[in-house]
Specification:
Number of domains: 2
Shape: globular
Order of helices and strands: EEEEEEEEEEEEEEEEEEEEEEEHEEEE
Distance between the termini: 49 Å
Number of strands: 27
Helix content: under 10%
Number of helices: 1
Amino acid sequence: MPTTVVERFGAVSATSVKKETTFGTVATGAVAGDFTPMTGNSLQLDPGLFFPKIMVGQRDQNVFPLYGQAKNAGALDFALMPTNAATIIPGTIGVDGAIGNGITGTGSANASTLNGSVSAGATSVVLTSGTGYTIGLFIQIDVNLAGTTTSEVRKITNLVTNTVSFAEPLIYGHLSGAATKVVTAPFTHTFTQTNFTLPSYTIEKNLGGAESLQFAGARFGKIDIKCQATNSEVSVTADVQAKSVAVLGSPTAPAYVSEQPYVFAEAALTLFGNTVNHATTTQFTLSNTLKDTYTMNSTRNLNFLSPVARTLDLKSDVVFYNLDDAAWGWHTLMVNQAAGSQAAGSYVLSLTHPSNGGTWSFTAPTCYIKNVSQSIKIDDVIMETVSMTAAFNVSTSTTLTGSLVSPSVYVAY
């Protein structure tokens, strides 16, 4: 007798995104912050069914069922928050806490130095003076110096005289004499572009609390962030592809950090150096152009998933004011750029919760206007859509950078 079908509910589904150490090797132990409050998850398997067109004396073409490339692809739709979903951003832009851009805390109490060098992976340091350092406080080790030294923050779990211990191992080595201090939240993260690869993730798609699809070797090919002055949250869509998928009979129990999504009233938009208070919508799309490569490796799963190219497109809807105003005459600015008499401009979007609730900032330092269009409606104000393309900035070596001032997370994502 067939099993009785019991309905499952989308509302009790969940998605976790956890960074992998090795591409395609499942990352286990999802915790609060790895789970992302979703509005949609379309990640699924296409088994690669095809039929070779072979004549067998019949009009039927579908005679020999074969299975080729197994593709795991889809999109994650979610609300942007300071902690929930923050794991995904370094998977689209690049490394959090890269050399010279490490995590920093707030304040500078009880300054000291390292009494002896430490290696990457260390879980304790010896200070010249441990005065003021106590269990439960946060210690910042080293400072950020481009290409040289990198700051890290750890929570003190034990203290014996001048020896400070912590749970999470250090990512970088630090020289004897490196500065240390006691810091507090919030903690600043900087996401730096990577040129050759991006982090990979294990994504668990929990289906109504019944079972899960566990996708390993997932990378993000494109991310779209949109903020609009309506009754809607700041929304994110991230296109994703994965190496393999497995079924979990017992889903991981969801856990979330208690926080709120951002809304338009918490946004600040700067275009070409001017604060734009008359924008109604802004969004940007970063594409990493993922290339899946299948090889004869005894499986039908992809073997390589490479971000081979990067492009960034941006768009803002603004209330129309003037065609040739020095700041807001977007049509004339576009024409002047085409004539070579107008320099490239910058795009900066910041989203800030009140009372240290967290701040996201995204910066494209070099943008060119590719299109300006006006919308004229009899029952509305005239609106103008400014579409831009970002270029690689040789001076900063960036097309897009992101930063997060986190209210609680002190280790790199």
